[in-house]
Amino acid sequence: MKTKSRETQEIVYESETTANKTQQYARKNLEELFVSTPLPLSDLLFNLGLFTRSSLLVKYIVMHEVYQRFVNLPGLIVEFGTWWGQNLVLLENLRAIHEPFNKQRHIIGFDTFTGYTPSSSPKDKLSLAWQEQSYATGECYKSTLEKLLKAHEECNVLGHLHGMHQLIAGDITVTAPAYFAEHQHSLVAFSYFDIGLYEPTKAAMLAIKPHLMPGSILLLDELTWSDAPGEALAFKEVFQDTQHTIEKCKYYPSKSIVTIHG
Ligand SMILES: C[S@@+](CC[C@H](N)C(=O)[O-])C[C@H]1O[C@@H](n2cnc3c(N)ncnc32)[C@H](O)[C@@H]1O
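A: This is the predicted complex of the input protein with S-adenosylmethionine.
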């Protein structure tokens, strides 16, 4: 599916999709219904489910399920590869539902915001999904996402207390080790890996590893995806000496949940 960034208009890239032509046509139809909706803006925002497909709704369900697994642990929520930041917003809102008074639950997102740089590692396969600038949001989107996160936070309990979200722009191979070197006291309760490439995934895993504890949860997007072997290779190399269990996500079979035991 071709995706065009509204902010950077010139960037066009292929999103990953398994939809066939009929489904893509149905999605296009939904887009047109969305654009031509008669709902007033405030009603539209209140009724967004009118346009939320099952394949998107399931992502909310998965994140809700995963949240319950780490809710009793202290520590950070970290997403590596945020794109437009929907998961970060979702996680802020799940935090507000599951632990409204926990203002210690900081949520951190890492992304270039300028999209992918194609991998030169032999451990990755070529894919249109990660050609130059694919998934680029434009560098200035970071401040838009910061505003969005703050706006959601302000809708939630204790919304006047800010500073729980942090967006780190840049190449994860540099930013992840630097962030955790500066924050050695950190604990990581939950980390979502959604980059798919070997080197940034391995750098992110190595960076958080010393900060994990028994019960910490990792959600891996592409562990079993043969077009993205780099994620599984990175995971095996980094966590081979760590006791863990791996489960297939019940409602989203291509995602895997890893629980750290020791
Ligand atoms: C598949 S998208 C993430 C989608 C997002 N997790 C979601 O579910 O909506 C992958 C993201 O990884 C980012 N990315 C790719 N390589 C990166 C790198 N070396 N450092 C930082 N971010 C990177 C891209 O900019 C892109 O936004």
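The chain has two domains: 18-51, 57-260. Residues 54-70 form the longest helix (17 residues).
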